[in-house]
Structures are given as structure tokens and as C-alpha cells.
Specification:
This protein is α/β, with parallel strands linked by helices and 447 residues long. 22% of the residues lie in helices and 19% in strands. The protein has ten helices and 20 strands. The protein has helices at 54-62, 76-85, 119-125, 189-203, 241-246, 253-278, 315-318, 344-353, 366-370, 438-445, and strands at residues 30-36, 64-66, 69-70, 129-135, 154-158, 169-170, 173-174, 177-178, 181-182, 211-216, 223-227, 232-236, 285-291, 322-325, 334-336, 340-341, 384-389, 400-405, 408-412, 419-422. The strands form five sheets. The chain has a ten-stranded mixed sheet with strand order 9-8-5-4-10-1-13-14-2-15, with helices on both faces. It has a four-stranded antiparallel sheet with strand order 17-18-19-20, covered by helices on one side. A two-stranded parallel ribbon has the order 3-16. Mean pLDDT is 92; it is low at 1-23.
């Protein structure tokens, strides 16, 4: 990691009580991206959850909380594609609009192609050391899909959508790698990921290069165990017994198991943040916490009070927690109501580090992070975002379309009439206005 450096303030004081803005400075920050799995907006303490997440919440206290932040998709694989490429998943060469299934032969031939450039490869080109620890889920059947062919210098983790949290297998198949080699690793998945991430940070402390470290937890997603009697994998929650004791006050057993995984992960995140402090890197380390999409109530997740869930394109499927801490730049305790999205990090990192932002559907968050814009601003005009998912037979899912245009939200659920909501007055999507605005419905449906 880089030695700590401070950014120089601009000689401009913003109005309306905003703090002085900061330039990005000549020295690139270290970046820690914490990316969690199946964790909804009501599964983080500072967003109103009953689950205590003090370490995650500290990022809101010491940094910025985003109140209208969206995932690139409501499904794992396309969400990750959008984050890394800065493009809508429906632009992907292999049409990555559904989850890649680890045991389905057809999905072994699909993934992130070499021509689809990630912000990680750009960061690598401008001098960053880059590492992925944890979940990949952007292809497993070919070298072409491997993280180390998309900008990551190192990879330690799993390629499928989930693992058995105790054996680190996908069902009965090994799926834990160091680089391209299967490795035998002991421990609980969340702890194994955290231990490796800390080791990466410590190894790079003396380096003169900045570090991009992506820690992609599989928690609180369900685990993929092997049912010996039935001879097939099965979905089970798999919390650690010690973590279950910490949430014994939650009555519903499914929610309790989910909460236990969140609490254990929060403690791991606390260890990551402590390591940054121990290495005296706090001021110039950009820490981002976000989730890949909304929670799944079938496995204990919650998106209340938002409508919808994982794999739907109602707000509960795509509006997610996002917290950013960067003491040298981001004002502590700040909030943003701007409409923002995971695809925006591609352009943001480009502005931060100087690489050319070529093809992106996102926009830079630089002005928001610096405090140059008012809390509800992202650009000078209303923003448009588009989401599409595809049918997936084995998961019994069908295709969806959603478009946000300013405060209007168009949703086309499968086999239903189109829906239109005014999110400024109806954030929980309860009042369908499609019949009152047919021209707007027609226009938005063509996106």
C-alpha cells in the first residue's frame, strides 16, 4: 500500500454550508472495495435494520451515505459485470443477464470476455497493484474469463455464485483458487476471505504503488452444501454457531441465521478497517462498502420498506446500501440523495487516477464525493438508468425491464401490465400511474 499522503484543498469555499472541496491530488489513493452478496437495504444498521452492524455503520459516520444508490442488476453475475465494466449488463458480449450456474454445462462457456475492459485493468495500467479476494462469478469454464485476465494481479477465492461456508466447495466440487490453482483451504469462508485481505494489505504496506483491493464476500448469501442422501447440492444458510448466539433476540429462525452471517461479516469488516488504521493509511484510503443487489426474503434478507427483492426490478431488488469513507476528501457524516449507480465507479476512478474513460453508461461521482454538488445533485439534468434481466429456466426466473428517468420509474414485470411510479411521492412503488401517462410509458419502454 502507499504511504499516507494528504490532498491539497482547493481555494474555493462552497456555499450552503458545504465544506471546502478537495482536488484529487497527485498521489493516487489506496482503494478498498467491500462488496457483499444478497444484502438488502434493510440489512445494514445505519439504513434502519434491526441487525447491529457497527463497523459498517462507522463508514457512514466517518464518510458519506448514499440514499439513492442502485446496483447494476438485481442478479449476481450481471451486477458484477456492470460494476467492473461501467456498462449496462445487456451490452455484455455473452448476454450476462442472469446468474451463471456453476454446474450447468452451457454456462461454463459464458463469461467476461477479453474485449470487455474493466476499471481494474485501467487501474493496473496506471500503476495500481490489484487483488481480488472472494467471489468472482463472471465465468469459470475458460482462462479467458479468469480475474487475472481482467486486471487483477492476484486472485484468491471462488468462481461460482456461492460456496459451502465450511468446506469451501460448491456442493461437492472444489472451487477455491489461488490464481489458477485449486487450493485446499480450511476455515469459515468469511474469515478466510478476511484473513487473506489483511495479508494482502500488510504485504503492500511498504510498496511504492497504490493498491486496489476488492473484497467480495459471499455472505450473507446462502451456502451451497452437498446433500449426500439426495446426491445433489442444496441451499443452506450456514451461520457460525458463535454468531447465532449474538443475534439470539431475533425470533424468526431464518432471519436469525441471516443476521448471524451479517454480524460475523461486520466483525470481519471491522478487522479490515483496523488494519488500515494500524498501517497508518486511513487518510488516503478510499473505502467503499456496497452490495450486489437486494436481499432475498426466502433466505432471510430484507429490503423493507421497499417493494421487491433479489431478481426483481422493483426498488427492493436494485436499490442498495452504499457507504464511502475517504478522510482526505469526503466530509464525515455527509449524505447524498443523488441518483447514483454501481456503473459509476468506472468513470469515478478514471477521474481520480487519470485513465481515459472510454465506454461507459455511468458518470463520475467525483463532484458528489468532493462536495462540489448539492446533496441531491448528480448532473445538471435528470438521470436515466436502465436495467434488464433475462429468463433462467433452472432458477424459474423470467425477464424484467425497468427504467428510471428523473423521478419516474417504469417497470415491466414478466407476464404483467406495465407499471409507472413517481418515486418522489411513492418510493415504495404502491401506486401504478401507467394508465394516466401512456405516452411516457411508451417512451420509457423503448429504452
Amino acid at each position: 500500500m502507499l504511504r499516507p499522503t494528504l490532498f491539497q484543498p482547493l481555494l474555493t469555499v462552497l456555499s450552503v454550508g458545504l465544506l471546502a472541496a478537495h482536488s484529487w491530488g497527485a498521489d493516487h489513493p489506496d482503494i478498498l472495495m467491500i462488496f457483499t452478496d444478497d444484502q438488502g437495504v434493510h440489512d445494514v444498521g445505519c439504513y434502519g435494520s434491526e441487525i447491529a452492524t457497527p463497523h459498517i455503520d462507522s463508514l457512514a459516520k466517518d464518510g458519506m451515505k448514499f440514499n439513492q444508490f442502485y446496483a447494476a442488476s438485481s442478479i449476481c453475475t450481471p451486477s458484477r459485470f456492470g460494476l467492473l465494466t461501467g456498462q449496462y449488463p445487456h451490452r455484455s458480449q455473452d448476454e450476462l443477464l442472469s446468474a451463471l450456474m456453476f454446474m450447468e454445462a452451457a454456462d461454463a462457456q459464458r463469461g467476461l470476455r477479453r474485449t470487455e475492459r474493466t476499471f481494474v485493468s485501467h487501474l493496473q495500467a496506471v500503476g495500481y497493484q490489484t487483488a481480488l479476494v472472494g467471489k468472482w462469478h463472471l465465468g469459470h469454464g475458460s482462462d479467458e474469463f479468469w480475474p487475472t485476465n481482467h486486471g487483477f494481479d492476484s486472485f484468491f477465492g471462488h468462481t461460482g455464485g456461492c460456496v459451502d461456508f465450511f468446506t469451501l466447495h460448491y456442493g461437492n466440487r472444489p472451487d477455491w483458487y489461488r490464481g489458477r490453482e485449486i487450493v485446499s483451504t480450511n476455515g469459515y469462508a468469511t474469515d478466510v476471505i478476511t484473513d487473506e485481505a489483511i495479508a494482502v494489505m500488510r504485504r503492500h504496506r511498504s510498496s511504492d504503488r497504490p493498491l486496489y483491493l476488492q473484497v467480495s464476500y459471499n455472505a450473507p448469501h446462502f451456502g451451497k452444501a452437498w446433500n449426500q442422501q439426495q446426491g445433489k447440492p442444496e441451499n443452506v444458510m450456514q451461520p457460525k454457531p458463535a454468531d447465532l448466539q449474538k443475534v439470539s433476540g431475533i425470533a424468526d429462525p431464518l432471519r436469525r441465521s441471516f443476521a448471524a452471517k451479517v454480524v460475523g461479516m461486520d466483525e470481519s469488516i471491522g478487522r479490515l478497517l483496523k488494519t488500515i488504521d494500524d498501517l497508518s493509511l486511513r487518510d488516503n484510503t478510499l473505502v467503499i462498502f456496497m452490495t450486489d443487489h437486494g436481499g432475498d426474503p426466502r433466505y432471510g434478507g430484507s429490503n423493507q420498506p421497499l417493494r421487491g427483492e433479489k431478481a426483481t426490478l422493483f426498488e427492493g431488488g436494485i436499490r442498495v446500501p452504499c457507504l464511502v469513507r475517504w478522510p482526505a476528501v469526503v466530509a464525515a457524516g455527509s449524505e447524498s440523495d443523488a441518483v447514483t449507480c454501481a456503473i459509476d465507479w468506472y468513470a469515478t476512478f478514471g477521474e481520480m487516477t487519470g485513465y481515459e474513460v472510454d465506454r461507459t453508461d455511468g458518470q463520475s461521482l467525483a463532484g458528489i464525493l468532493r462536495g462540489d454538488l448539492l446533496p441531491n445533485e448528480s448532473t445538471s439534468k435528470p438521470r436515466t438508468l436502465v436495467w434488464k434481466t433475462a429468463a433462467h429456466q433452472s432458477l424459474d426466473r423470467k425477464s424484467w425491464l425497468a427504467v428510471r428517468q428523473g423521478d419516474w420509474k417504469f417497470v415491466q414485470p414478466p407476464e404483467q401490465e406495465p407499471m409507472l411510479f413517481d418515486l418522489s411521492n411513492d418510493p415504495n412503488e404502491t401506486n401504478n400511474l401507467a394508465s394516466r401517462h401512456p405516452d411516457l410509458v411508451q417512451q420509457m419502454s423503448q429504452q
